[in-house]
C-alpha cells in the first residue's frame, strides 16, 4: 500500500472535451489549466464563461503535473492560463521561459507577498492567494485510538502513528514539495532527510495530489494528513470530524500563483481572465467553493474561517531559492532516492 499513487489525474471536461481542442485561432475561447481543488476550478471557469461569453476549456492538474504539461507543450503551447497551485512551480515555469511577462495594472492593490512573487519571476507570475501548511487530523479516530493530536513536526514520528499519516508525492504535488522545502529550511538539509525517512515509516501512502490526504483524514481513512490548513473548513462544512494545527516548530506558506503561457493562442482572453481573477469579486469565489486561502487582493472581503496568519509561527520561506528548477529537481530526486525507495 505504501507507495500507491491515488488514481486522481482528474480531467474536468467542462464546456469541452477531454483535452485541449478547437481551432488554434478561435476567438472566444480560453484553455485554462487549473491546479486548485475541483470545485473552485469549476466555479471560476463557469463564472468567467458566463460573465464574459468566452468558452472555457478546463483541464485540472496538480501543480507538479501542470508544470510537466507546460514543459511538454513548450514547442506548441495549448494552454493559455495556468490558474493556482503552489507558487514554486510557477517560478520554475518563469525561469524556464514557459510563461509570459505581464504586469497587471492591479499589482499595486495586491498584498506585498503577491507583488514579491511577481517581481521574483520577472513579472511572469503573480500571487493569487496564500495558505499555511500544517496537519489535519480526524478527531474521532484519534480519540478512539487514544492518541493526542499532533502539535509539532516531531510528533508525526511517534510509533503510535505507524501507518496513520498521509502526505502527497512531491513529484506531482506542489503541497508535498512545499512540505519538503519547509522541512529543509526548518531543520537543515541532512536533518530534514533523516526526518523524512522517519516520517516515511508512518506514511500509509503518498497521494498524487495535495488535496487527497485531508479528504482521507476527514473520512476516517487515515488519522492524520499533512495538508494546507485552509482545506479544513470545507471538510468541516460537510460534517466531517476534522481539525487542524500548524506545527510548533514553524511552518511554510504557499503563494498560490497564476501565469499566462508564452505563446498562448488566445492571448487577449488570457489577459481578460487574468485581470478578472485578480479582482475581489473573482477572489471571493474561493470561499464560495469552500476554499479558505488568504486572497491576494487587499480589498477582497475576508471570511472569518480564513486562517489568521498572525497566530501562526512561520519560517522565513525563501520562495526564490526553493522556486528554482535545479533546487526542486535536486530535492525531489533526493527524496525519491533516499526516502521513497525505502520499504
Ligand atoms: N488545492 C488547494 C486548495 C491548494 O491550495 C493547492 C495549492 O495551491 C492545491 C490544491 C495544489 O495541489 P497539489 O498539491 O496537488 O499541487
What would you say this structure looks like, in words?
With 343 residues, this protein is of the alpha/beta class. It has two domains: 29-130 and 255-302, D-Maltodextrin-Binding Protein, domain 2, CATH 3.40.190.10; 131-252 and 328-340, D-Maltodextrin-Binding Protein, domain 2. It is built from 14 helices and ten strands. Helix 1 links the parallel strand 1 (29-34) and strand 2. Helix 6 (174-187) crosses helix 7 (189-202). It is globular. It binds pyridoxal-5'-phosphate. The site of pyridoxal-5'-phosphate has 22 residues, from helix 6 and strand 9.
Outline the secondary-structure elements.
Blueprint: E1 29-34, H1 38-52, E2 55-60, H2 63-72, E3 81-83, H3 87-95, H4 112-120, E4 126-138, H5 139-144, E5 165-168, H6 174-187, H7 189-202, E6 203-207, H8 212-218, E7 224-228, H9 232-237, E8 242-245, E9 253-260, H10 267-278, H11 280-283, H12 285-288, E10 294-295, H13 319-322, H14 325-340
Parallel strand pairs: 1-2, 1-3, 5-6, 5-7
Antiparallel strand pairs: 3-9, 4-7, 4-8, 4-9, 4-10
Helix pairs in contact: 2-3, 6-7, 7-14
Pyridoxal-5'-phosphate binds at residues 35-37, 62-63, 84-86, 131, 168, 173-175, 209-211, 228, 231, 254, 256, 291, 293.
Amino acid at each position: 500500500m505504501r507507495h500507491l499513487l491515488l488514481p486522481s489525474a482528474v480531467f474536468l471536461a467542462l464546456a469541452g472535451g477531454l483535452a485541449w481542442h478547437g481551432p488554434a485561432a478561435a476567438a472566444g475561447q480560453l484553455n485554462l489549466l487549473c491546479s486548485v481543488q475541483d470545485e473552485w476550478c469549476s466555479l471560476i471557469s463557469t463564472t468567467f464563461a458566463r460573465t464574459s461569453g468566452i468558452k472555457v476549456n478546463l483541464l485540472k492538474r496538480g501543480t507538479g503535473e501542470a508544470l510537466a504539461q507546460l514543459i511538454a507543450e513548450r514547442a506548441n503551447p495549448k494552454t493559455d492560463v495556468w490558474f493556482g497551485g503552489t507558487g514554486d512551480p510557477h517560478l520554475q515555469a518563469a525561469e524556464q521561459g514557459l510563461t509570459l511577462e505581464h504586469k497587471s495594472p492591479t499589482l499595486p492593490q495586491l498584498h506585498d507577498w503577491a507583488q514579491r512573487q511577481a517581481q521574483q519571476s520577472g513579472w511572469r507570475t503573480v500571487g493569487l492567494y496564500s495558505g499555511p501548511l500544517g496537519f489535519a487530523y480526524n478527531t474521532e479516530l484519534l480519540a478512539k485510538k487514544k492518541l493526542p493530536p499532533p502539535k509539532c513536526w516531531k510528533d508525526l514520528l511517534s510509533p503510535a502513528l505507524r501507518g496513520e499519516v498521509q502526505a502527497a508525492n512531491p513529484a506531482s504535488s506542489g503541497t508535498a514539495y512545499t512540505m519538503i522545502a519547509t522541512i529543509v529550511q526548518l531543520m537543515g538539509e541532512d536533518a530534514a532527510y533523516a526526518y523524512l525517512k522517519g516520517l516515511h515509516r508512518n506514511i500509509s501512502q503518498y497521494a498524487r495530489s495535495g488535496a487527497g490526504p485531508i479528504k482521507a483524514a476527514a473520512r476516517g481513512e487515515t488519522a492524520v494528513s499533512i495538508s494546507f490548513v485552509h482545506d479544513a473548513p470545507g471538510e468541516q462544512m460537510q460534517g466531517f470530524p476534522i481539525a487542524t494545527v500548524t506545527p510548533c516548530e514553524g511552518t511554510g506558506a504557499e503563494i498560490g500563483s497564476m501565469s499566462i503561457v508564452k505563446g498562448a493562442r488566445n492571448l487577449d482572453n488570457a489577459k481578460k481572465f487574468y485581470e478578472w481573477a485578480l479582482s475581489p469579486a473573482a477572489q471571493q469565489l474561493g470561499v464560495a467553493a469552500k476554499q479558505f486561502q488568504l486572497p491576494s487582493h487587499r480589498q477582497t472581503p475576508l471570511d472569518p474561517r480564513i486562517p489568521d496568519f498572525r497566530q501562526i509561527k512561520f519560517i522565513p520561506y525563501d520562495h526564490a531559492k526553493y522556486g528554482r528548477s535545479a533546487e526542486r529537481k535536486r530535492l525531489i530526486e533526493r527524496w525519491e532516492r533516499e526516502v521513497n525507495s525505502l520499504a
